[in-house]
Amino acid sequence: GTVSSDHVYTLENVQDIIEYARLRGIRIIPELNAPGHINALGRTFPGRFFN
User: Which candidate in 4, 26, 37, 41 could, as Cys together with 21 as Cys, close a disulfide (CB 3.0–4.6 Å)?
Assistant: First the structure.
């Protein structure tokens, strides 16, 4: 797909979401959606990913 500034979160957006969640006792856990690159990440950061 195409990527544009309309399809990304700004730093301010993320900070607002985290603060909104914090005030409600919710913890935000970031997720990396990169299945095609997960093996490379595992080699780059050994011990941080499960086999």
Answer: 26
